[in-house]
Amino acid sequence: MTAPVLDIASLGGHTMGTTWQVKLTAPVGRDLHPLHAGIQAQLDAVVAQMSTWEAGSTISEFNRAAAGTSLPLPALFAEVVEGALDIARRSDGAFDPTVGPLVSLWGFGAHAHAQRMPDPALLAATRERCGWQRLQWHNNMLLQPGGLELDLSAIAKGFAVDLIHRWLRDNGVAAALVEVGGELHGYGRKPDGQPWRVLVEAGPEEEAELSHPPRVLALDDLAVATSGDRWHQYTHDGAHYSHTLDPRVGTPVSRAAAAVTVVARDAMHADGWATALTVMGAEAGLEFATANSLAVRFITRSARGIEEHLSPAFEQLLAQQAAA
Could you write out the DSSP letters of every residue in 203-265? Predict the structure, then answer.
C-alpha cells in the first residue's frame, strides 16, 4: 500500500485574550475541521476552569467562595495547581499562584484597579490575603481559607499548549508545532524529515543590538516560553511598572529583564519558570538555573547596552543542536 502524501497544515483561532496556532503534518486532502474543533475544545476547557475573566469558571467560583468552603478540583485544574505549587515551593515564592489580588491592585488582570501606586495600607492588607502556603488541598478538594484568590495566568497558557499537544498525539497527529500566546511546543518531524525550528527573540530593538547570530531552537519534543517587561506594562507619574509582580514584596519587578526564555520538556513548566526567573532577576535567576539545570536565556539592559546571559543547560542545548 502506498503511504499517504503528507503536507503541513495550519490551523488557528482565538483564546484567553490572545491567539493560537498549530502547524501539523497531515495527509493531503484530510478534513481538518475535526482537528480544529478538537483543539478549540481543549482550549475552551482550560478557559472554563482557569480564566479569571469568566464569572462561571472554576477558578472564579473558588475565588468568591466563603471561608471554609471546600471545592472539588476538575482533573485539568488540579494538574495546573499542582504544577504551580511545585514551582512556588522550588522558587521559594518567586512564583505564587495566589498573587491575583496584588496583580489587580497594581492595575493588571481581569479585575484591575486604576493604574497607580496603591495606598500603602491597602497594599499591606492585600498582601495579607496572598500566599501560596495558605492553599490547603486534600483528597482532591481545595479549601478556601477566606479571601484567597487564585490566578493561574502565568502558567495556564503553557498548560494549554501541553493539552493540545497531548490531544493531537492521541488523535494520530505524528508531528506538530503548537503555539498559544507565544508559548510553544514542537514534536515529531516535518514531511522533509526536519524538526520544527523557532526563533528565540526578545524584540526587534534588543535583538538588533546583540552581537551574536539569532538563536534558533529545534523543538524536537521540547517546549519554550518567554516572559519579560515588553509585555503588559505602564508608566504612571514617570515610574515604570511591569505586569510581573514579585510576590515576596508585593510590588512590580523593578528593572525586569527585557526577556527571559525557558526551554523545558513541557510548556507548563517553561511558562511558570519564565515568570519565576523574571522575578528573581538575571543574577539570582542564572544562579538558580545553573543549580537546577534549567535551560534559560536572559536578555537584560544595562549601561553597557543590551546583553545576553545563558545558563549552562541552554548553552549545552545550543551546542547539541548545532552538532546534530
Answer: -HHHHHH-SSPPEEEEESSEEEEEE-TTSSEEEETTEEEES-EETTTTEEPTT--SEEEEEES
